[in-house]
Design goal:
82 residues, mainly alpha, single chain, 0% strand
Length: 82
């Protein structure tokens, strides 16, 4: 399955990894892999408690309308079922 690099979920993953890198790993002092794991899990728990908010989906399921945005000399795009 091909998945382009610009997909929105991939951008969100990169943001999370960047935050973990800046806040936890960079300049961190870890005595073991277990210590690193514990600090990562504490950061994730803290982030979820303080910053995470539920996502409110706003998509209504209706198809997009062209709304007169056609270029001169071209026919308007037709929406399926109309």
């Amino acid at each position: 399955m091909f998945l382009p690099k610009h997909t929105s979920w991939l951008n969100q993953i990169e943001i999370i990894f960047g935050m973990i890198m800046r806040k936890v790993i960079r300049r961190g002092n870890f005595t073991s892999v277990t210590d690193l794991k514990d600090k990562l899990l504490r950061f994730i728990g803290y982030f979820n408690e303080v910053f995470a908010k539920p996502f409110r989906w706003t998509f209504t399921g209706r198809p997009l309308q062209t709304g007169g945005l056609e270029k001169p000399g071209r026919e308007a795009l037709t929406v399926a079922g109309k």
